[in-house]
Every structure is written in C-alpha cells, then in structure tokens.
Amino acid sequence: MGFHSQTGGFDLLAIESSERLMIKFRVKEKGSSTIGIGSLQVKDAQSGVVESSNLRAIPPGAVLENIKLDAAERQRVIDGVAKNLNESPCGRARR
Questions:
Q1: How far, in Å, CA of 43 to CA of 50, rounded?
Q2: Domain ranges in the chain?
Q3: What is the pTM of this model?
Q4: ∠ CA 60-63-64, rounded to 5°
Q5: pLDDT in tens, the chain (95 residues)
Q6: What sign results for the dihedral spanned by CA atoms 59, 62, 67, 73?
C-alpha cells in the first residue's frame, strides 16, 4: 500500500511484448507524469505463480530501444565494458 500511496497507482500505456510466460509493459503513474517499464514472469502456465517482476522509472526524455545481440556481439560488449572498467581510475584503485 505504501508504493500505491507514492504513485497513485498506474495506467497501462502499452504491452511492449507478450510471450507464453512473460509480459513486458509500459505504465504511467497516476500521481505524476512518470513513465515506467516493467515485466512480469510466471513460473509456468498452469500455476500462475509469479516468478519475477520488476518496474523501473524511465528518465524524462529517454528513448527506449529493444536491442538484440547475438552471443558473439554480447561477449564483445561485455569484454569492452570490463576493459573500460579495469582501465578507469576507480578500476585501477581496486587492484
């Protein structure tokens, strides 16, 4: 109820994607102009038990893009991020 009193509840704006066990959606807080994106995943179709859910606010002016990476590209991105972190002043200080 605390979360509801902070947001005023939500209006559903769009279903971004819908799969057998997961739905991704976009909502707007009733109590403000804040837009959020979230997902809800159920354990299996029979039980209806929620396995995970999340909801995150989208910063004003942000543009959402659904980017799909193959395994090789995903690894290249992870390696690049790790390299940048290791070369940053904060990364060097932890060594």
A1: 6
A2: 1-63, 65-95
A3: 0.61
A4: 120
A5: 676 677 788 999 999 999 989 999 999 999 888 899 999 999 888 888 899 999 999 888 887 777 788 899 989 999 999 998 888 777 555 55
A6: negative
